[in-house]
Amino acid sequence: MATRPGPLTEWPWQRLGNFKYVVMAPVVVHGARRVSAGGWGEIDLAFALVLPSLLLRMIHNQIWISAARYQTARSKHRIVDRGIEFEQVDRERGWDDQIILNGLLFYVGYLLIPSARHLPAWRTDGAVATALLHAGPVEFLYYWFHRALHHHFLYSRYHSHHHSSIVTEPITSVIHPFAEHIVYYVLFAIPMLSTIYIGNASVLGFVVYIAYIDFMNNMGHCNFELVPKWMFQVFPPLKYLMYTPSFHSLHHTQFRTNYSLFMPFYDYIYNTMDKSSDQLYESSLKGTEETPDLVHLTHMTNLQSAYHLRIGFASIASRPSDSSMWYMWTLWPLAWLSMVFAWIYGSSAFVVERIKLKKLKMQTWAVPRYNFQYGLNWERESINDLIEKAILDADARGVKVLSLGLLNQAKQLNGGGELFRQKHPKLRVRLVDGSGLATAVVLKSIPQDAKQVFLHAGPSKIACATAFALCEKGVKVIMNPKKEYDMLKSQIADSRASYLKHSGNQMPQIWLVDNIDDKEQKMAPQGTTFIPISQFPIKKIRKDCTYLSTPAMKIPETMQNIHSCENWLPRKVMSAWRIAGILHALEGWTMHECGDALIDAEKAWSAAIRHGFVPLNKA
What we know:
six-stranded parallel sheet; 26 helices; alpha/beta; about 625 residues
């Protein structure tokens, strides 16, 4: 929102939320009536392309969003090396508003302008006229309108909304108040209305012109330099006819330079070109190689997680993955397609995120596999190969710490990472499974006055460490499965063994759970607090019980570029396993924490608090 919002700031359908597409109903109803009355032959090309062109624009924009986020996470050609926050993602959530407006204006134009109906598919002379009219009147008028928007009166009421994003993403290009977009569409209508009046307009001419506007808008705001230098060397005048991402980036950082729409020649004519434009282009194109200090290796969970990744859908990734949204079912075909594509062509982990904490540089890499694939015996070898490849890649690049997230550290898969440590004893990168901090978070989530807890978990590393710590404190740990009880009993010191009990009748109101089904949950007494000790949340079926989060902590305010949620966790919250890798790098710990090795829980907890991480579940 602008600093002092002016009239017509809000979009007319803003209060409709995700149901805003209902405003396109007249187009659908009109088309249905024409088809029912006279068949498909009654639908001419101009009308038929109104809705498909909107869908193509959305796909075009989403490709740019995903490509830009992927490149800014891994590429050395970043222009502005700063982070994006949730506030910007929320502000830019309505990037499709202008597409809806475009569709409505096309429909109204179709109804009101008889000569716009039954246009030919293509006219070359019309395309040439459109290009000339854009380079002339449109670019000229936009340049001066844009300069006017930077006057404090209009800037504070309208244009400051767009400039709230210093670090731009492709969709930043269309984030403007409604009033601004009305003016922009008046400008862009000049070539289209003129060709209709002249008589050389065409349907594809309009579609290509809008696609050109989208392409240039997205490119100019993508925050990584991609225009090759040879283009300007082959055709030197191109520098006056096409801007670059670095050129427009300066407008967002300097504000008073580089006003042009897509063609910078008016900035040259009126002496408003930033003097550092060429230098920034050269330096961004050359780039600087960057080696992260830490890599967190995760993977996709369910089918929906493909578009919950940061490089997927920005608005979905900015919410916990268990958030229910009515339109998610429409994405299932895309989810299945991405899963099949990843299974067939996913030969290595890929970068999905880049964040900073103080001077520590971190990346998140994802193994292109899903939860269900980790449970397939015949897939384990290939998954371990992918994990091993990522570890060796990180080691070769000089990464200091690699934390194993989710099932990448499964004991039945690779012994909690021990397989790779033994196979490559000279690894310089430290492997971390995060069990020490996860244990500490679980222990701190238990009320201090608790006298007994019920441990419903298999013989996992964290379950054992938690049971040992509780017994040492004199807290009674009750277990039901005899097999798991006997395994733990044999490992506890005789002086504390009496605190570990096997019972099917005693049911305390504090349950430490790993994997629990609905039937087992119903056995818990009323008022029970369920405390997960695994990385995956448990299903909440009891309204009379309390469910705590999986082991996690709130991140420090100084952590940069956090604008997506980690799976099902809330905003600005990280899993203990991921934080453990960060602490390993910050503290300079030299040991591997994998296999049976475990960082002391109190040591890990103290380091987390010292570096600004905040408890999420307070005892």
